[in-house]
Specification:
With 246 residues, the protein is an alpha/beta fold. Helix 3 packs parallel to helix 4. The relative contact order is 0.09.
Length: 246
């Protein structure tokens, strides 16, 4: 059907077009700051189309890979050189780990099952400050020389937590993540009684869904578990634990 000429919108004034383009340019870095690759319901996607990676990949600072093909993972790691916060629920191959190693990472959430990660070949161990790693060989911890925040599962023995806190005085927060999150909400829930008789204020037991917590932190929501744990530790430093209300 022919379009009636009188219903065709007129061209915008050049000055207005320029303003619109400038606004779009400002929005693009915000739009692609956080990218989530996933086909799973638990990780709602925040996509950056792969065809746009060469143009917009430099704006990505937070990348979560819930599920993706190996080739796709490599493309995103290659074209997003400014990622400071990387999370993957999938084990990474050696070539992928080498691409991760080139990133200016500070926060790492990684599945280390079947991983070829080695402190002798990867520099990421010396720059990561926040670490949440599944199946991490604890003998690798000394190689994370900048580590200040660490997540461990609640399935470890009492002596493991004690030894880590004694050995790593630079740790500001040791978060013990409750493995059973069947009743967890999207917001972190503090488990007040952590380890009876152990009074190191840096250990915080938490219950929250990890993937939702990562998304909250990446999007700047201060109710995320890391920020919550930091506030708990700070509160304990100025008040005896017995005085902290539940």
């Amino acid at each position: 059907m022919a379009i009636d000429a009188q219903h065709v919108p007129p061209d915008l004034p050049l000055e207005l077009e320029r303003v619109i383009l400038q606004m779009a340019d400002r929005l693009i870095p915000i739009l692609y700051k956080v990218v989530v690759l996933s086909t799973q319901a638990m990780w709602p996607p925040l996509p950056l189309p792969i065809a746009k990676l060469p143009q917009y990949g430099r704006y990505v600072q937070h990348l979560l890979i819930g599920s993706a093909r190996d080739k796709m993972i490599g493309q995103y790691l290659k074209y997003c050189p400014n990622i400071i916060d990387f999370a993957s629920g999938m084990p990474l191959s050696e070539p992928q780990m080498k691409l991760v190693d080139r990133l200016p990472l500070h926060q790492l959430y990684l599945n280390f099952y079947n991983s070829s990660a080695s402190p002798s070949t990867l520099i990421l161990f010396s720059q990561v400050t926040h670490l949440d790693a599944a199946a991490l060989d604890l003998s690798l911890l000394p190689h994370f020389t900048s580590l200040t925040h660490l997540v461990l599962g609640s399935n470890l023995s009492f002596s493991v937590y004690v030894d880590i806190l004694k050995q790593y005085s630079r740790l500001k927060v040791l978060m013990v993540w409750d493995i059973d999150v069947s009743n967890a909400t999207i917001f972190p829930q503090l488990q007040r009684e952590i380890i009876p008789g152990f009074d190191d204020t840096r250990i915080v037991r938490m219950k929250c869904r990890k993937h939702l917590n990562w998304r909250m932190k990446a999007l700047g929501d201060t109710r995320n578990a890391w920020s919550f744990a930091e506030r708990v530790v700070e509160e304990r430093s100025v008040r005896p634990r017995a005085q902290i209300s539940s």
